[in-house]
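task queued by scheduler; priority normal; single chain, no ligands, no partner chains; default sampling; output format set to structure tokens
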Amino acid sequence: MDEFASIRHWTDGRQAAERQRAQGVVIGIGDDAAVVEAPPGESGALQWLLAVDTMVETVHFNSATMSEADVGWKALAANVSDLAAMGGVPRHALVSVSVPRSWEPARMRRLYDGLYACAEHYGVAVIGGDTTSSPAQLVVAVTAVGTVGAGKAISRAGAKPGDIVFVTGPVGMSAAGLHWLLAAGQSGDEAVPLAAAQAAGTASLVQAHRRPSPSVRAAQLLAARGTVTSLNDVSDGLASEAWEIAGASSVKLALRKSQLPVSGSLAAYAHSCGLDPLDWLLYGGEDYVLLGTISAEDAAPAKSAMAAEGMPMYLIGSVEPGEPGVDLIRTADGSGGGAGRPKERREPIRPKGYNHFA
């Protein structure tokens, strides 16, 4: 198939006209540029959010760890998470692919199956993109567009001393899932089937890596409270994202090890490997949950409100004055710290996480 036949094969009939109109699409795929307008029925002024993310074969994925559909899902999900981290609503996506000869039409069709499944799940209208050839590896670049109330976007720069640090889900699961997949997939080029992960007790870890679930609804509920002071998504690792908030806000974040959320499947798998799960929690990345800060007065009420909606919110530390940085507070074994309090020790966390150019 030539370029234009390929585009039609990947995209035709994927989204109903009603879905596109609901997201303000006037002209979508098939012209020189898409035309969109603010979705109907919105009250008050809106601002646009724009984010772009790129996935490169052998850097972000390979055929032994992820199926084609998983790649498509994750390529869009990473962008949806960026919009959620600003407190926004995802609306549109532009998808550019650079395709090598090894990715025949059926493989690319499956990639778009996953991408459109993610788009439908989060209400995103796919409105265009670009297609080129590639000499060796597949490259998928997605530009996502969202909206947020004017002046309501939540940045990394608003954390204040006295705020409470939170995350909207367990961390480290994606990294643990990748660890298992790399070990299980050593003997072949096909993606390790989920049934094998289920048999090994690592299915939730594998799914966290292959099909992350951005915290879109949680972000909107928290943003509506007006008490969230900073927000970031955990793409490069909890330590790295915490440092980004600390640096942007000129504060210190103190995280408590005992309060970091550890899933049972992660703890069990780490134990079976003789590894410390803390490394995955702090430095794993690609969890796409949200890390943020909230006023101390509203931390507990917000946690209760989230629980009432069936969504987790873990309070994992506090914001302190001082030079920008991140500390981990551990409860020491043995002697207490006086007045019945456990003895604590504090250690700095390095701004280590995934970095393409480290």
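post-processing summary
- The radius of gyration is 21 Å.
- The domain at 164-348 is CATH 3.90.650.10 (Phosphoribosyl-aminoimidazole Synthetase; Chain A, domain 2).
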